[in-house]
């Protein structure tokens, strides 16, 4: 229960809003009370809060209050670096200053990232096993560019106070950074490392243990919850912002990868630490894997081919022989250089061995419903060779046991209620049978008055052979009516580029396409020049915040279902069906609903924004699942009459900016 000596959460919110020059919003007040109640009752909470609600303030105020009350930090987890930076650089400093006089002390905060994000002082100054240079493909320009980045990092290492990679602007490649960082598995540990006392990662963790609010990301949250050793300071409350991304980020953390490159990295790292014939056995197994992956078709592997099974067994067994030949893990603990080499070798060998074991264990189940993981072959690219991947068919059990079982969790986003309820995401999070509440605090925007949702029912269904000419004509006419000012969200990069090429000469307004430059610069250019249009794919569906007259029209080419041949989503769909559920609705339709809602959310970013969402795919009006998708979207005024959005866009274009 709340401590009576602290001001009530309503009062703290009012003080904060007044100090920050804002005005109270009903949705924000509803949310702040709900978050406080969830913390008091130790009950999980899902909050859908539309753009403009001020949800970060609505969860930060009760979080800070609880930290003061319990003397334990609250962890705030985000999916994107942009939101982390907003919280740490803008929201928390202003809020802390505003509440300082009302609380026992001025609220404190820190950002905590995974160990790989911090410079390793020891690795930067000592001998260390060489990293894998294969992916440079011996291109002299790449080698030279990497060399320049390495030099920049070395110069920066002499002056940085945090060792945080994000301080490096412009950024550096993963190839260069790997030479100065270690994973948690490779780290010697602060007590054994000669640089342990001044380790940037340890110093960041120590700071996080002393503050009221720790800002981190979904990946580190998952690693902390599911790992054997805690990464985050001890805490009772977690707020997951951008919670619609949680399942995908956790899945990425627990996805395993096996390739010739990972096997050869283990061979190189084990180097002279064991007898050569034993290392040679692992190298030969890696060469067998390389030949097999080069010849095999990409995609999901439902049944384990005999030759692949034998190769995986060979990798598993030879990796284990190398691990055994290495001897005790704590040998050479008094010699940091040798200890570092041994730790790096064990880490690479463990990863190869454990991933091979996971892949073999993914088979042999009595039925599809009993299967826990899926294995697939990723074809790779010109720069990245093929590899095998393994991922869980669901992370709900992990989240239920490891994240929600130990603490109170508040999950929030502008898009959580799919089909009008929280049930779909609650099931993915493992909350379906647990103690939780879901609320939608609405939005300060008047969606029916500010926006039109136009579904082009008269167009043909989208096919697999690119954009039909009717779609290109529709796009051109809508953009002409809007005078540019259009964000085009496409289901694939190929479709975005095809539309750009077909329409650049046809339209009288500038047309940018994702890939022409960095996405950040393209969005900036789009925002600053009103007639400009921007076409692109996935990152634009969720990452664009352009208030004002530069954005009046959002075009969505098709309902964004996952690709039918996507190995993970297709396997998850089949797994749900094998257990008696509706695989299409539980996986494909949920995926499409989330992205549609995120895409539609690009239109209204401030109180004065107006415009049109145009969905060219007629299935949003005609398919049996259309009601579910429409109920996942904000309540825009809806029409299927092409004349209405064109007239509205022309009126908006005629308004003075």
From TrEMBL:
Q: What does the record give as cofactor? A: [4Fe-4S] cluster
SUPFAM superfamilies registered for this protein in UniProt: P-loop containing nucleoside triphosphate hydrolases
Give the first-level EC class, as a single word: isomerase
Q: Which UniProt keywords apply?
A: ATP-binding, Helicase, Hydrolase, Nucleotide-binding
GO molecular function (one)? nucleic acid binding
One of its Pfam families is Helicase_C_2
Q: GO BP, one example? A: nucleobase-containing compound metabolic process
* Family (UniProt): Belongs to the helicase family. DinG subfamily.
Return the protein name.
Answer: ATP-dependent helicase DinG
């Amino acid at each position: 229960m709340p401590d009576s000596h602290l001001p009530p959460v309503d009062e703290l919110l009012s003080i904060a809003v007044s100090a920050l020059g804002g005005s109270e919003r009903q949705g924000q007040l509803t949310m702040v009370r709900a978050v406080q109640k969830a913390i008091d009752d130790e009950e999980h909470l899902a909050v859908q809060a539309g753009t403009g609600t001020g949800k970060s303030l609505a969860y930060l105020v009760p979080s800070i209050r609880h930290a003061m009350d319990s003397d334990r930090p609250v962890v705030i987890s985000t999916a994107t670096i942009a939101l982390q930076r907003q919280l740490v650089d803008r929201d928390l400093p202003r809020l802390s200053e505003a509440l300082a006089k009302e609380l026992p002390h001025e609220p404190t905060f820190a950002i905590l990232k995974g160990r790989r994000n911090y410079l390793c002082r020891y690795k930067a100054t000592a001998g260390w096993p060489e990293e894998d240079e294969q992916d440079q493909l011996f291109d002299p320009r790449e080698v030279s560019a990497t060399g320049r980045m390495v030099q920049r990092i070395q110069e920066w290492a002499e002056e940085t106070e945090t060792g945080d990679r994000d301080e490096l602007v412009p950024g550096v490649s993963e190839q260069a950074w790997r030479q100065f960082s270690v994973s948690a598995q490779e780290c010697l540990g602060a007590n054994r490392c000669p640089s342990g006392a001044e380790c940037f990662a340890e110093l960041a963790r120590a700071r996080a243990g002393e503050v009221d609010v720790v800002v981190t990301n979904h990946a580190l949250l998952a690693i902390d919850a599911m790992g054997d050793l805690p990464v985050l300071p001890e805490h009772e409350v977690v707020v997951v912002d951008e919670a619609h991304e949680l399942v995908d980020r956790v899945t990425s953390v627990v996805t395993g990868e096996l390739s010739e490159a990972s096997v050869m990295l283990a061979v190189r790292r084990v180097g002279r630490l064991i007898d050569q014939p034993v290392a040679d056995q692992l190298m030969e197994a890696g060469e067998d894997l390389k030949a097999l992956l080069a010849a095999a078709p990409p995609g999901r592997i439902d049944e384990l081919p005999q030759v692949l099974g034998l190769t995986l067994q060979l990798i598993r067994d030879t990796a284990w022989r190398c691990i055994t030949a290495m001897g005790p893990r704590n040998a050479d603990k008094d010699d940091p250089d040798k200890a570092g080499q041994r730790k790096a070798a064990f880490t690479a060998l463990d990863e190869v061995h454990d991933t091979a074991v996971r892949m073999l264990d993914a088979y042999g189940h009595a039925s599809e419903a009993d299967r826990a993981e899926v294995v697939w072959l990723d074809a790779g690219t010109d720069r990245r060779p093929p590899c095998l991947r393994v991922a869980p068919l669901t992370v709900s059990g992990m989240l239920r046991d490891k994240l929600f079982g130990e603490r109170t969790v508040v999950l929030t986003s502008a898009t959580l209620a799919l089909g009008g309820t929280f049930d779909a995401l609650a099931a993915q999070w493992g909350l379906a049978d647990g103690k939780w509440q879901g609320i939608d605090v609405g939005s300060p925007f008047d969606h029916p008055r500010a926006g039109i949702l136009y579904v082009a029912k008269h167009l043909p269904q989208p096919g697999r052979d690119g954009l039909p000419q009717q779609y290109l004509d529709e796009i051109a006419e809508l953009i002409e009516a809007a005078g540019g000012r259009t964000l085009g969200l496409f289901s694939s990069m190929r479709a975005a580029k095809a539309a750009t090429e077909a329409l650049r000469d046809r339209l009288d307004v500038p047309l940018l396409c994702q890939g022409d430059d960095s996405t950040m610069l393209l969005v900036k250019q789009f925002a600053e020049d009103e007639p400009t249009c921007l076409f692109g794919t996935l990152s634009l569906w969720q990452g664009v915040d352009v208030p004002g007259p530069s954005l009046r029209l959002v075009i969505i080419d098709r309902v964004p279902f996952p690709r039918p041949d996507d190995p993970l989503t297709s396997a998850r769909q089949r797994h749900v069906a094998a257990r008696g559920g509706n695989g299409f609705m539980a996986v494909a339709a949920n995926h499409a609903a989330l992205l549609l809602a995120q895409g539609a959310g690009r239109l209204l970013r401030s109180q004065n924004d107006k415009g049109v969402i145009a969905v060219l795919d007629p299935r949003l009006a005609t398919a049996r699942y259309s009601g579910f998708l429409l109920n996942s979207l904000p309540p825009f005024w809806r029409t299927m009459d092409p004349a209405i959005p064109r007239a509205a866009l022309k009126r908006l274009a005629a308004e003075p900016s």
